[in-house]
């Protein structure tokens, strides 16, 4: 598992935007440059993630510097970790361990299908091991536990499809006004006609002035890209291709 992924040196990455941070060669550099917690790096080693892929090498520094990002990278190149690691690093510590009553969901990952949301949750669990992160795969059961405001005020990361999330927002059972990290995964599908209205509603509900947004996709057709860029603030855009193809 996780060993046959193409390393960054076999990727060609084209970046566009202002003040683009340097990519990293190794995960270890993230500790040096961004004080990433040793625990997170240990969890990477534990799961045999040895070298960052292209989208990780370039994308992680961008997100860790708090920039908005549109990342286009082929399927199987590790886009999930590219955003999850910076999210965990930026959150610092689990809300449950902070001496804090909590003021709502801290990070949100949107995915077009339940299957994908489930896979993202599994990647989250790898990074989360050893600390008491509150990770919620939003479904019927977890939605019902989150009706309790005390519970939903102390959530680190929610992973959800748009439909169920919008329903919860509309019913007054979820607030997203404390979300600092918003990710649209498989953004080409999230921003097509099937989901666009719901996605825009979710984005609009993330009202915190310090919300950092990023979209990830294997492809981003022109019309969809325009929509995506319109949601982002001074974004950097990276496009990853495989060399010799
Ligand atoms: P994408 O979203 O780009 O299609 P995924 O995030 O689903 O790709 O990752 C594909 C596979 O590669 C997963 O099994 C993941 O655990 C693994 N993987 C991700 N990053 C690395 C890495 N740096 N080294 C080794 N395996 C990795
Ligand atoms: Mg993916």
Automatic annotation (TrEMBL):
Highest rank taxon of the organism: Eukaryota
Classification of source organism: Eukaryota, Fungi, Dikarya, Basidiomycota, Agaricomycotina
Transmembrane parts of this sequence: none
Boundaries of every Helicase ATP-binding domain copy: 60-238
Protein's UniProt name: RNA helicase
Signal sequence residues: none
Protein family according to the UniProt entry: Belongs to the DEAD box helicase family. DDX52/ROK1 subfamily.
């Amino acid at each position: 598992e996780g060993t046959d992924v193409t390393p960054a040196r076999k990727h060609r990455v084209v970046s566009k935007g202002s003040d683009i941070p340097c990519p990293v060669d190794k995960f270890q550099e993230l500790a040096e440059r961004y004080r990433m917690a040793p625990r997170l790096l240990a969890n990477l080693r534990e799961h045999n993630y040895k070298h960052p892929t292209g989208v990780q090498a370039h994308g992680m520094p961008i997100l860790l510097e708090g920039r908005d990002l549109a990342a286009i990278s082929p399927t199987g190149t590790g886009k999930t970790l590219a955003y999850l690691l910076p999210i965990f690093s930026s959150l610092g510590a689990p809300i449950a361990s902070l001496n804090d009553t909590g003021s709502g969901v801290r990070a949100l990952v949107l995915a077009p299908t339940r299957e994908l949301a489930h896979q993202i949750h599994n990647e989250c669990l790898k990074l989360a091991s050893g600390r008491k992160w509150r990770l919620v795969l939003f479904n019927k059961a977890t939605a019902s536990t989150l009706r309790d405001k005390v519970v939903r005020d102390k959530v680190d990361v929610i992973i959800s499809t748009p439909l169920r999330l919008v329903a919860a927002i509309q019913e007054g059972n979820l607030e997203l006004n404390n979300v600092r990290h918003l990710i649209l995964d498989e953004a080409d599908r999230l921003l097509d006609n099937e989901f666009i209205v719901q996605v825009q509603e979710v984005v609009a509900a993330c009202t915190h002035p310090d919300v950092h947004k990023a979209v990830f996709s294997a492809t981003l057709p022109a019309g969809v890209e325009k929509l995506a860029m319109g949601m982002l603030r001074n974004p950097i855009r990276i496009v990853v291709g495989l060399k010799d193809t």
